[in-house]
Amino acid sequence: MRPPVAHHHPAGGASRRTSRLLIVEDEKRLALSLAKGLTAEGYVVDVVHDGREGLHRATEGTYDLVILDIMLPGLNGYRVCAALRAAGHDVPILMLTAKDGEYDEAEGLDTGADDYLTKPFSYVVLVARVKALLRRRGQGAGASPVHVLGDLRMDTAARRVFLAEDEVTLTAKEFSVLEQLVLRAGEVVSKPEILEHVWDFAYEGDPNIVEVYVSALRRKLRAGLIRTVRGAGYRLETAP
Fold first, then answer.
1. How many CA atoms lie within 13 A of 151 on its CB side?
2. Each residue of 5-14: pLDDT tens digit?
3. Phi (first) and psi of residue 69, to 5 degrees
4. How far apart are CA 171 and CA 191, in angstroms?
5. Residue among 146, 190, 198, 140 nearest 173 (CA)
6. SS (H, E, C) the chain
């Protein structure tokens, strides 16, 4: 029998649709503190304290965002995130960890997480990250533009990328970086611009993380598709 999930509902009866968040965090005091704060921000928040239950809730529930700790009993956050992505769930995931370092960040993002926050963190920063992820998700829910550049085709609503006739599987962050380049194809897009649009202004990690994702895109797509403009940024070539 599964343990009951803790539900936190915002005060008042707003008529607009309220975003639903799931917190998967085994530090109960931290989880309940975050839930209380985010509820005050107007979100409906559910809390669970282990990885297996978090995976179950995220799979069965209709959430707009998951805040997922990495060090969890049952299943760790990496495995929960990877399982959700493998099952086709595109819910935004913000990973929390007490670890620090590029290896941990790369591993977390490569499993399909959308953002990463190292403890201890500022609550104001966490709220900014949550709002940025929800805003990007909302922007993707409108029209379904398909961008075609030579043999590269990108559907920003279905979140699918094709090179010639082959579909290319990208992580959430890889897709977002490519999207910024596609939307400004032929122009130079600076590293700070990519960080601002993909990681948002509150990102405090290594800005060289952009290079990591550009390198991954080159491996998955075609080496010459994304050009480095030294000292300026990156440019997606428009020629086939």
1. 10
2. 566 666 544 4
3. -75, 155
4. 19
5. 198
6. CCCCCEEECCCCCCCCCCCEEEEECCCHHHHHHHHHHHHHCCCEEEEECCHHHHHHHHHHCCCCEEEEECCCCCCCHHHHHHHHHHCCCCCCEEEEECCCCHHHHHHHHHCCCCEEEECCCCHHHHHHHHHHHHHHHHHCCCCCCEEEECCEEEECCCCEEEECCEEECCCHHHHHHHHHHHHCCCCEECHHHHHHHHHCCCCCCCCCHHHHHHHHHHHHCCCCCEEEECCCEEEECCCC
Structure-token pair, residue 212: 């990591």
Token digits for 145? 């533009």
Which residue from 101, 102, 48 is spatially nearest to 75, judged by alpha carbons?
A: 48
30: pLDDT strictly greater than 90:
yes
Instruction: Encode pLDDT of 77-95 as tens digits.
Output: 989 999 998 888 888 999 8
Can you tell me the distance from the alpha carbon of 230 to that of 188, in angstroms, rounded to the nearest whole number?
10
**pTM of this prediction?**
0.57
Q: Give the residue from 137, 160, 138 showing the smallest Cα distance to 147.
A: 160
Question: Helix crossing, 77-86 with 102-110: angle to 10°?
Answer: 30
* Contact (Cβ atoms closer than 8 angstroms) between residue 147 and residue 156: yes
Distance CA 49, CA 32 (A): 10
Cα–Cα distances (Å) from 220 to 38, 171, 182, 214, in that order, read 38, 11, 15, 10
